[in-house]
Design a protein that fits this description.
Length: 132
């Protein structure tokens, strides 16, 4: 696995489901990532606001208090360039388009496999490093 880009990166996991949250934490711990967690959309906005050095946000769509779309829209107001990846259980084309038109950089479909997540993160970090 290609983990060099991931080492030391700060990633915010936004997930309201306890076992999914534990699973993602376990994968990213092994990749030597610095992990922050939020359990709803409002908490995600607050954590993003208070931690300007976050590199990537893994944003669940269905969240209590504020959903992933609204949270991402909020975060984009003060973090134009942060990588935000949607995690969604829905693989339908309409949802993909909605996600990509809602301020997310990318999406990953649940259930999330370790290899897919690592590749998705590396791809987006590599893309972010390239000069615009
Ligand atoms: Mg959820």
């Amino acid at each position: 696995m290609e983990n060099d880009l991931l080492t030391g990166k700060k990633i915010l996991i936004v997930e309201d489901d306890f076992s999914s949250k534990l699973y993602l934490n376990k994968i990213l711990e092994k990749a030597n990532v610095i992990i922050l967690n939020a359990g709803d959309g409002q908490e995600a906005v607050d954590v993003a606001f208070n931690n300007p050095d976050i590199d990537v946000i893994l944003m669940d769509i269905q969240l209590p208090i504020m959903d992933g779309y609204a949270a991402t829209k909020n975060i984009r107001e003060f973090r134009k360039n942060i990588i935000i990846i949607a995690q969604t259980a829905y693989g339908f084309l309409a949802d993909k388009e909605k996600i990509l038109n809602s301020g997310f950089n990318d999406y990953i479909i649940k259930p999330i496999l370790t290899q897919n997540l690592i590749e998705k993160l590396n791809t987006n970090l590599r893309r972010a490093k390239q000069p615009k």
